[in-house]
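WARN  no MSA supplied for this record, continuing single-sequence
INFO  ligand: zinc ion
INFO  echoing inputs
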Amino acid sequence: MRNIVVLTGAGVSAESGVATFRGPDGLWEGHRVEDVATPHAFERDPALVHAFYDARRAKLGTVEPNGAHAALARLDAEWPGELLIVTQNVDDLHERAGTKRLLHMHGELKKGWCLACGERFPWDGPMGENSLNAVRPEPVEGLSFFSNEQRKSSPSTMTKTDHPPDGPGLSSSGRTDVRGTSVRTSSGRTEVGICEAVNICPSCNAVGRVRPDIVWFGEMPYAMERIDEALMRCDLFVSIGTSGAVYPAAGFVQTARYCGAHCVEINLEPSLGSYFFHESRIGKAGELVPQWVDEVLAA
Ligand SMILES: [Zn+2]
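INFO  complex generated
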């Protein structure tokens, strides 16, 4: 019985309405990749990075798996040999279609990673909303902590110390009032309780230390050893909906082919590494993947 490795990329999710990683304008939902998808970006502006991923996590509730996800789940359920479906996508559409033999090499939107204790865990809802400024009980002299709205509307050159203590800091934050959980103290100052924070590690209770469990540029993709091993052993390698531009995934076909696998790509257009494949099927994944799965299961 043959061993199969499937690699899926943005093209598969795009057909479900998930924004692809790089649009024609070179931006990702209006952001430069280096502003939202690098460890440096997170250090520099965690609120922006959290807001970006929080929005994408929320969007998952509005999209559904398509025919390609369903067909791969059927392959997983019915294929008697070895199978590993490696996805570059961080959404949960493969799981929701029912796929079990799945590996997220670039992490998952619906997982958090605590930088305090190192644990990874499922995560629903926002991760960043107010989490970085809610933990301060009151403004510190000379510093003010912006709410998310205030950050967004602030000129990019503004730094925390540009505001006087009575500027738009935490004590006048609209968000705490909107939420209705702020407390007016006898001094007339608004204090924000720790119950405001949404970014609390379920493992160690650290506040504001959980980051999206997403592999950013400059970070090592997950499970590379296991993937390499599967690629070297497989008889059939199929790449679906990937441009062939992002390494190391773009190199999987070379490993698989060198080790003797038959290599098939299914994509809207020939990928950058198209010549490494024995076979290219050009068209929509939602139509071509079910056909391919039918063929494989009937063979
Ligand atoms: Zn922790």
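Residues 4-18+63-106+219-298 form a domain with the Rossmann fold fold (CATH 3.40.50.1220).
INFO  checksum written, moving to next record
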